[in-house]
Amino acid sequence: MKHWFITTDGNLKARWKKAFPEMVASKPDVFINKTQPNDVVWLSTTVEGWSELIGTVTAKGAVVVVLSYSPDDREALRSLDLGARGYVHTLAAPEVLKQVALVVTNQGVWVGQELLAKVLGGSFKALQQRAEGGSSFNTEQLGDLTDRERGVALAVVRGATNKEVARQLDITERTVKAHLSAIFKKLAVRDRLQLILKLAPVVERIPERF
Prior knowledge:
210 residues; disordered C terminus; Sig_transdc_resp-reg_C-effctor; DNA binding; Arc Repressor Mutant, subunit A; Rossmann fold; WalR-like
């Protein structure tokens, strides 16, 4: 398995070698006929036609991770929809790149935590709306929270980012972060993803038609 970094910026080669000493930096017209199944292709959005290249690469059995200097939720979702397995900042630390590689080469998907929280929150909300006889959330988990913390927690579970929570509750993002720290401690969770899972809807039965 090789790690191919497809970019227009050759100055990043030394940075990526810290993560993958045997990595190969290449231009699009060079690597495309050399990739093998299970290779990991790290594709920069600075490359012309990068989105079209995703399908070409995945058709050869390789795994694609999109690199972006300005990560954006819409662009991330587009990348995944086109077949990419991961989406990460171009300047991510070598240790992060190793984690990304571990996840995507084991059939996982890597995106920013806030986007993943938003996707999971939206999925839970849709599941809740389709459920019959299920309560909205595991309310027993909310008993130790203050009213404000409960509002923040439920907004996050529904997929809101810190900025969106701040706007919804008319508080600052700094206050949202402070509430989240308290919530994490009280509910014994490490981050917002664990929070979502802990407060997942209690779905007793999903109609067979779904």
